[in-house]
Amino acid sequence: MGYVAVKGGQDAIENANRLVDYFRWKGKTEPIKVDQARTQMRLAVDRAMGEGSLYAPAHAALALLQVEGDSFEAAFHLRAYRATLERRYFAEVLNTREMFVHRRISSTFREIPGGQILGPTRDYSFRLLNPALLQASLGSIEKFIEGLRDAIDPCKLHAMTTYKKVIDIFLNEGLMSRQGNPDEDRRVFDVTREAIKFPVPRSAVLQMLARSETGALMCMAYSTMRGFGESHGTVGELRVGEVPVRIVDRRGRTRYVGKIKVTETEMVGGSMRRSPDAARQGGKRSEGAALSIGYGLCFGQNETKGICMGMVESALRSPNPDNPANNQEFVLYHTEVIEAYGFTNHLKLPHYVTFQAGLESARRVARLKQERSKEVAVGAGAGEGGND
């Protein structure tokens, strides 16, 4: 590519780093603690963990503080740190039916088994700036928490439980296949260790979408809703909560290692084929009656990403080169945050060797055109003199 060293070498780089710290501290404000960032900027931390492909809330908070809130840089730092870690165990498949639910909603039914649980959300709030946060203090926070606890009626508390899934309704009615597509490639593919070669199996698609940049994924999903695709799903169920993680140790024993917070989304859409279950049961449903699921699961609470992931995952199962969101290579390469961010920002590095080479070629062509124009002009003049 013809890169060259920055003028001034290491001293210039150190000065640039010092200036970064100067602009961070010149306001002489109280430094933000990692615990503050982890709890009060939890959604930014969750997004960084997802795009950084590493579930480590404290490390994600540190990365965000280090890069002054730049989500792209934070994900880049986490990916770099992740690459230094040894892989010792493989987790068992997560059972999201065991989720300790913080939030659970469905757009397909007014009421669902166990009820809609709004949980922590701003979906029904006005998007107005809150001046009260300017006066927030530890005392006011403690007062708010105590007031919330006092408002809880102990008589209405019930034992913790898990919830059945909304898709069970569709499965029991034969509107959805339990087996899925029999022709689907079900290999377990590790995108961090195996070279990508299209088309990739569904496991690779889900991994890459889970690591993708939220905004880029939303762009792909929105394009399908606007007609540049074949998918416009409805939220069958969206869950936010904690699920247990288990590993198998070297002696073959299953061990519980803790819980992680995830967002799981199942987007329900129509399928232009008949459900195999409905066919076996002798159902007389039309070709458009069968339903399909687009699946999304990502770290932390990132509902926008979960919804978009489900929509895009569904679209990718219907390849169509005319629509960006139905094209595996287009979606998976162009939503990959580290590749896209790295390549875009590498343009800030010195490129003058290659640029000057191209510029010199352009100048040579311009000179040749100018000389050619002069020759044509001289020839035209000589022709006019001969006619006289």
End-to-end Cα distance? 58 Å
Question: Strand pairing plus helix content: what structural class?
Answer: alpha+beta
SSE string, helices as H and strands as E: HHHHHEHHHHEEHEHHHH
Count of spatially separate domains = 2
The tally of helices reads: 14
> Shape, please?
globular
Helicity level: 40-55%
Number of strands: 4
Mean pLDDT: 89
Low-confidence stretches: 272-289
Radius of gyration from the CA trace?
A: 28 Å
Strand residue content:
5-15%
Give the neighbour order of strands across the main sheet. 1-2-3-4
Sketch the major β-sheet.
Answer: 4 strands, antiparallel
Map the helices and strands.
Elements: H1 9-25, H2 34-40, H3 42-52, H4 57-66, H5 71-82, E1 100-105, H6 138-150, H7 167-172, H8 202-210, H9 214-225, E2 234-248, E3 254-270, H10 276-280, E4 291-299, H11 303-315, H12 328-334, H13 337-345, H14 352-387
Antiparallel strand pairs: 1-2, 2-3, 3-4
Helix pairs in contact: 2-4, 3-4, 3-5, 4-5, 8-11, 9-11
Give a brief rundown of this model.
It contains 14 helices and 4 strands. It is of the alpha+beta class and 388 residues long. The longest helix has 36 residues, at 352-387.
Notes on the protein architecture:
The chain has a 4-stranded antiparallel beta sheet. Helix 9 (214-225) crosses helix 11 (303-315). The protein folds into 2 domains: 9-82, no CATH class; 96-122 and 163-343, no CATH class. The protein is 43% helix and 12% strand. With 388 residues, it is α+β, with helices and mostly antiparallel strands.
